[in-house]
Design brief:
By secondary structure, the protein is α+β, with helices and mostly antiparallel strands. It has 4 domains: 28-165, FAS1 domain, CATH 2.30.180; 176-310, FAS1 domain; 321-449, FAS1 domain, CATH 2.30.180.10; 466-569.
Length: 573
């Protein structure tokens, strides 16, 4: 190489380095240049926010880093102008650096880029200090965050998205007990909490809780003297049980949260209170209830959790399954049959846990059992009943069905297979309609059914061959692709989710044991289909999961021989 050219090239490199060092040229990639921090630097309306941002350590790093992903609700200069002089001075005071970090992190969602389309489909987002911000708005163009209008949405950057607001979001500083006490509607609840000693639980800022909070008016609906009885010194244990029935040791919301925990009513969800029992959430035509009690308003934010306002106090379930069915009054024939069969103790014992599918009186009258009670008291009749009733009990399990997933498979106390399906609001067990779900008792759960579970003596594992598994996958991909092609993305996610649960329940074990394909790892996204509320992308991911399972199965076809399956020999010489 020519020495002159080499010297000139070296000079250029050294000169370029000097320019970079003096800041004349910036050695930034397009990702750096278009990060949230850099793009906001060029906007006059965000100059106050940027000035404050540069006074921080963590927030500054995140917003300028192309490696982070953020959604930021940026207060404009107008927003900061609305603050009092004292508040503005506090934000700019170097002594308040830690508080400034908290205020700015309160306006950001970490790990997710949430545009206004997704915002319009959810009720809450979780910010950088692990607290929730409420999302509201009538349309996609009229969105609010914590009650503050979003004036400009979807300012896209290389590491996320910015939405501008003309007010600064005030961080919620009160804990759950302080929020309830200062609300003004919960003086009775506050008094009971203080008497029980549970105030410390709701003031614990290292954990998150949900409280279903009865108002003063709700307590007035109780029989006269109930509150005084709960406050009596000898009833402290009862008071604690009643209050713990209203408290859940996690955040359970009504509003949807992208990328976070499932909201109340999500299929397959389970909410257990501090008393140790399930709480049954139902939503129908806009009306919401918890354990049958109306929820008046929901998703009220506190620093360490959330509370929902309810119209009546909740009560712990202390009765046995037998007592629970006796109180309902629609299961007298079933109880009589259990007594004849010598199995009534199963419903009365508190040291065991069972799920019972109880035929209603109407169903058993239709089957003729009401007229045969006396004749069934013989030894042979009792033996027959034990066989029938055993098909209606699942041992050692509390199975919730109000918000059930699409398909579940269990074994009865007789080891008979029980397939439980959900299609919309309809639920069945072995094809028998389930007409009443989740009657909670101290020793289990009961579901009312409109018939007798049949005695299906099916051939063992008759559907566990390569051909039947492949057929199921092809049917799923064909029907799901049709929905997707029609633009029915949410319907497609629902369909793929339902088929995923059924596929894993029916074929998952055999697929892994015989063919070495782990379906659960490939279809995991189907169970979390609402996490991001972007149904077009979610449905596509779900479709790919089924496709990958099919490819794994067809790859196994070349490695295994199944002489009983014609599909295994197709194309083989």
């Amino acid at each position: 190489m020519n020495m002159k050219h080499t010297t000139n090239r070296l000079a250029l490199l050294i000169g370029g380095a000097a320019l970079l060092a003096t800041g004349v040229l910036r050695a930034e990639s397009p990702q750096d240049e278009n990060s949230i921090g850099r793009r906001l630097e060029g906007l006059e309306q965000a100059s106050t926010f940027v000035t404050l941002l540069k006074n921080t350590d963590t927030s500054k790093h995140l917003l300028f880093s192309p490696k982070s992903t953020l959604t930021v609700f940026v207060p404009t200069n107008k927003a900061f102008d609305k603050l009092s002089d004292e508040r503005r001075a506090a934000l700019f005071d170097p002594a308040n650096k830690h508080w400034l970090e908290r205020v700015l992190a309160y306006h950001a969602v970490h790990g997710s880029s949430i545009d206004r389309y997704v915002l319009s489909r959810v009720g809450l987002v979780k910010n950088g200090v692990n607290q929730n911000l409420k999302v509201s708005g009538a349309t996609i163009d009229d969105l609010h965050i914590d009650g503050i209008p979003i004036t400009e949405a979807d300012f896209t950057c290389s590491n996320g998205v910015v939405h501008f607001i003309d007010e600064v979001i005030e961080p919620v500083e009160l804990d759950l007990f302080e929020s309830i006490e200062q609300d003004g509607r919960f003086t009775v609840l506050s008094k009971l909490l203080k008497r029980s000693g549970l105030t410390k639980l709701l003031q614990n800022r290292h954990s998150k809780y949900t409280v279903f909070a009865p108002t003063d008016e709700a307590f007035k609906a109780l029989p006269k003297g109930t509150v005084e009885t709960l406050l009596a010194p000898q009833n402290l244990d009862l008071l604690s049980d009643v209050l713990r029935t209203h408290i859940v040791a996690e955040t359970v919301t009504v509003g949807k949260i992208p990328g976070e925990a499932f909201p109340l009513g999500t299929r397959g969800s389970r909410v257990v209170n501090q008393y140790g029992q399930e709480l049954v959430y139902r939503a129908n035509a806009g009306a919401r209830t918890i354990d049958g009690v109306p929820i008046a308003s929901y998703d009220h934010l506190a620093r360490n959790g959330i509370f929902h306002v309810i119209d009546r106090p909740l009560l712990p379930k202390r009765d046995s399954i037998r007592a629970t069915l006796e109180q309902k009054g629609d299961y007298t024939i079933f109880l009589a049959l259990m007594e004849i069969a010598g199995r009534l103790d199963t419903l009365d014992q508190f040291n065991i846990t069972v799920t019972v599918f109880a035929p209603t009186d109407e169903a058993l009258r239709r089957e003729g059992f009401a007229d045969r009670l006396d004749s069934l008291r013989s030894v042979e009749g009792g033996e027959m009943l034990r066989g029938i009733l055993g098909r209606h009990i699942i041992d050692h399990r509390r199975l919730l069905l109000t918000n059930a997933i699409a398909f579940q498979r269990f074994e009865s106390s007789l080891d008979q297979r029980l397939d439980i399906r959900r299609d919309g609001e309809e639920r069945t067990v072995q094809g028998i309609p389930i007409v009443e779900t989740d009657l909670i008792a101290a020793n289990g759960i009961v579901h009312g059914i409109d018939g007798i579970i049949p005695n299906d003596m099916e051939a063992v594992d008759s559907d566990q061959n390569w051909r039947s598994i492949r057929r199921y996958l092809l049917e799923t991909l064909t029907a799901g692709s049709r929905l997707y092609g029609e633009g029915r993305f949410e319907a497609a996610t629902d369909y793929y989710e339902a088929r995923s649960f059924e596929f894993q329940a029916r074929f998952g074990a055999s697929l892994e044991s015989f063919y070495g394909v782990k379906a659960a790892s490939l279809l995991y996204k189907n169970a979390a289909r609402n996490r991001h509320y972007d149904f077009a992308n979610t449905a596509w991911d779900q479709r790919n999961g089924f496709r990958d399972v099919l490819r794994g199965l067809e790859k196994a076809r070349a490695l295994l021989i199944d002489e009983d399956d014609p599909m295994m020999t197709v194309g083989r010489k």
